[in-house]
Design a protein that fits this description.
7-stranded mixed β-sheet, 8 helices, single chain, alpha/beta, Metallo-beta-lactamase, Chain A, binds zinc ion
């Protein structure tokens, strides 16, 4: 059975006790698929017993620090374990998906100045995210939908994406950061099993209203803004407005799909 491990659930705030920036891992078919890579994600994963060497792909929603600040550490830790303990990656390569190639290139450049020119006994392939199916294997299918969280320059592609993830017969929508819930319309209109939703830019009551009017089976808050972070008891009361039920996850939580 596929699982989601929540490694970080904070929005882009100042450092908070027990809560890192956003990142979660979907474990399906024995491999790990990472969605966003907020700071400390690989440290949290490793220390909680998640095998970093089972990584197959990493999907970044947009290049803001609270979504990508841990990507360098993730790549560094994987290589460290492979080279130091003479282990092998479960896959032949790591596929990195990012809407802004320059931010990955900067991370990779920095890694090359750390150890051994960052030569790895496996491939790291980078891919630019654009609308449509970005990845599909026997365990998971990931489709990208651009949203309006980030402005784009003339002639530049969209910089911020939400993902429709299909795994284990379930449809999971990850909002990334969105300008408004309207950005999610196309992803949820045919129904979904889980909406993994940010609240850095939205009120719980607005999200509840959106979810109540659409065929969404379950709402999980995964990237908490101040409305939640400043007052958890009040937030738990507010999520009762979601008819199908809602959950606010913490770092270290796991759900079975
Ligand atoms: Zn964010």
């Amino acid at each position: 059975m596929a699982k989601i491990h929540f490694l970080g659930t904070c929005s882009g705030t100042e450092p908070m006790e027990g809560r890192n920036h956003v990142s979660f891992v979907i474990n399906a078919g024995g491999f790990n698929y990472w969605f966003d890579a907020g700071e400390n994600c690989s440290r949290s994963a490793y220390l909680s017993g998640i095998d970093l060497l089972k990584v197959k792909a990493v999907f970044i929603s947009h290049p803001h620090y609270d979504h990508i600040g841990g990507l360098m550490g993730l790549m560094w830790n994987i290589r460290k374990i492979v080279t130091y303990f003479r282990k092998s990656l479960a896959s032949e390569s790591i596929e990195i998906f990012t809407p802004k190639m320059e931010s990955w290139e900067g991370i990779y450049k920095t890694l090359q100045y750390t150890e051994g020119n960052f030569v790895c006994p496996y491939k790291i392939n980078s891919h630019l995210v654009r609308d449509g199916v970005v990845f599909e294997d026997e365990n998971i299918k990931v489709t990208a939908f651009h949203n309006h969280h980030l402005q784009t320059e003339e002639g530049e592609g969209w910089l911020s994406y939400s993902y429709l993830i299909e795994a284990d017969g379930k449809k999971i929508v990850f909002s990334g950061d969105v300008k408004s819930t309207a950005d999610l319309e196309a992803l949820v209109s045919d129904g979904c099993d889980y909406l993994l939703m940010e609240t850095g830019h939205h009120k719980i009551s607005d999200v509840a209203e959106f979810v109540n009017a659409r065929p969404i089976k379950s709402l999980i808050f995964v990237h908490h803004g101040l409305e939640i972070l400043n007052d958890f008891p009040a937030a738990y009361e507010k999520i009762k407005a979601v008819k199908v039920g809602a959950k606010i996850v913490d770092d270290g939580d796991t759900i079975e799909l």
